[in-house]
Amino acid sequence: MDVTFLGGPRPQRGVGVVAPFDFALDRELWRWTPDDVSLHLTRTPYVPVEVGLDLARLVSEHQTLSRAVHTLVEVTPEVVAYACASGSFVDGIAGERLMCEAMVQAGAVPSVTTSGALLEALAEIGARRVALVTPYTVSVTRALEDYMAQAGVTVTGCVFMGLTRHIWKVPYRDVVEMARQAVAVGGADALFLSCTNLPTYDVIPQLEAELRMPVLSANQVTMWAALRRLGTGAVGPYQALLDESARMWPSEPPRPRVHDGEQQEGWT
């Protein structure tokens, strides 16, 4: 078949993505991406450090970010996203803003980070009280809680996994169970599943239907915010952040699925 009459591939708009060296969910990011947008991923250099506060700071150093963004300039992305939650909340709101400035200076394009995108998403859905699920250690989880507090967001309940590696291997069933525990305290407007290395795409609609509240995840808000700057939308059927019709739930609150008197590990 002669395809030359087509004149070449369709025009594509580009989103540059800077991810930590251990990021393993490229395919998940693509699932939020519309057909006329391409993702151009690059990774920070490897460092022999487990997931924790030290690693979060190492993969978000301004020099590291600038070099990563420079590797994307040739393919002319229209926006650059830093896809790492802990790396963008570890030094608070001021640190996140400085990261964006460093990326803009390096690539002369708009830049977003996962944690900055989270605050944008919470404002979009009008959520000020949030339950958290993280795969992190207690110290990294505390840093996220501090970041939320700086933004005026109340954390109603939080469950963490204590992992220092291989976060992308966490199964959906574990994410769902920890989400149930996090919201069991009550009073949350939304649930946030932190870490861009935590698989979440398919579990979001299920949790929203069960918990009757918006469920945000690190990769979801990152792609939503980046694509928003292109004037387009992320692809996520039945996800409340992306589809207003998915924000309609019955008025009856869900029953917490925790046994009375049972102590849960990882509560903060």
Q: Mind explaining what this structure looks like?
A:
The radius of gyration is 19 Å and the shape is globular. Helix 3 runs parallel beside helix 5 and helix 6 packs across helix 10. Helix content is 37%, strand content 15%. It has one domain (4-247): Rossmann fold, CATH 3.40.50. The strands form 2 sheets. Strands 2-1-3-4 form a 4-stranded parallel β-sheet, with helices on both faces. A 4-stranded parallel β-sheet has the order 6-5-7-8, sandwiched between helices. With 268 residues, it is an alpha/beta fold.
- Provide the CATH top-level class: Alpha Beta
Instruction: Provide the number of structural domains.
Output: 1
- Record the strand order, biggest sheet: 2-1-3-4
Which architecture name does CATH use?
Answer: 3-Layer(aba) Sandwich
Mean pLDDT: 91
Instruction: Name the poorly predicted regions.
Output: 253-265
What is the string of helix and strand elements? Answer: EHEHHEHHEHEHEHEHEH
Report the sheet with the most strands, covering strand number, pairing sense and barrel closure: 4 strands, parallel
Total helical elements: 10
Q: Tell me how many strands there are.
A: 8
Features:
268 residues; alpha/beta; Rossmann fold; 4-stranded parallel sheet; 10 helices
What's this entry about, in short?
This protein has helices spanning 26-31, 53-58, 62-70, 85-89, 92-107, 114-125, 138-150, 172-183, 203-211, 218-228; strands spanning 13-19, 37-43, 79-82, 111-113, 129-134, 154-160, 190-193, 215-217. It is of the alpha/beta class.
